[in-house]
């Protein structure tokens, strides 16, 4: 990857719907070589896909909860099953296996505290193998950014 590739990625991160002509103008290339570079980055796995940023509040999911989870067991089977269970819960929008005092950090999107309580009762507390969890409601997002290029 060179500086032109990085500039193409910056343009795409800002707006993935930018036309090839506009990307080319921004990086000093015509549309065809610009498309070739984008295609190479897709094939190499640098570009994993294209997505839409949704407004959580407009979708009535105004609360974000960070949930730290500790499991009873750390066997490969337990970790795999826990990951599969999380994948089936739509409110869990991110899940990380982490180092430190807790095993997992989850980011959960819910309507409000009642909706989170429902999620705990109906889904999270029913997962076998959870020893302990700790929840923190996000009060305000101070920074939300793309990857640095």
Concise account of the structure shown:
It contains five helices and four strands, in the order H-H-H-E-H-E-E-H-E. It has 149 residues and is an alpha+beta fold. It has two domains: 3-43, Arc Repressor Mutant, subunit A (Orthogonal Bundle), CATH 1.10.10; 63-137, Alpha-Beta Plaits (2-Layer Sandwich).
Verbal overview:
This protein is α+β, with helices and mostly antiparallel strands. The chain folds into two domains: 3-43, Arc Repressor Mutant, subunit A (Orthogonal Bundle), CATH 1.10.10.10; 63-137, Lrp/AsnC effector binding domain/regulation of amino acid metabolism (RAM) domain (Alpha-Beta Plaits), CATH 3.30.70. The protein has helices at residues 3-14, 20-27, 31-43, 76-87, 113-122, and strands at residues 63-71, 92-97, 104-110, 130-137. A four-stranded antiparallel beta sheet has the order 2-3-1-4. A hairpin with a 6-residue loop joins strand 2 (92-97) and strand 3 (104-110).
């Amino acid at each position: 990857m060179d500086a032109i590739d990085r500039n193409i990625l910056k343009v795409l991160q800002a707006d993935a719907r930018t036309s090839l002509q506009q990307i080319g103008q921004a990086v000093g290339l015509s549309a065809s070589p610009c498309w070739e570079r984008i295609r190479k980055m897709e094939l190499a796995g640098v570009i994993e896909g294209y997505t839409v940023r949704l407004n959580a509040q407009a979708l009535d999911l105004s609360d974000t909860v960070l949930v730290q989870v500790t499991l009873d067991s750390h066997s490969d089977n337990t970790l795999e099953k826990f990951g599969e269970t999380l994948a089936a819960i739509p409110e869990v929008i991110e899940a990380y296996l982490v180092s430190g005092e807790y095993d997992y950090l989850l980011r959960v999107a819910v309507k409000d505290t009642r909706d989170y309580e429902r999620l705990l009762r109906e889904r999270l507390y029913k997962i076998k193998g959870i020893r302990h969890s700790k929840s923190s409601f996000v009060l305000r997002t101070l920074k939300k950014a793309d990857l640095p290029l």
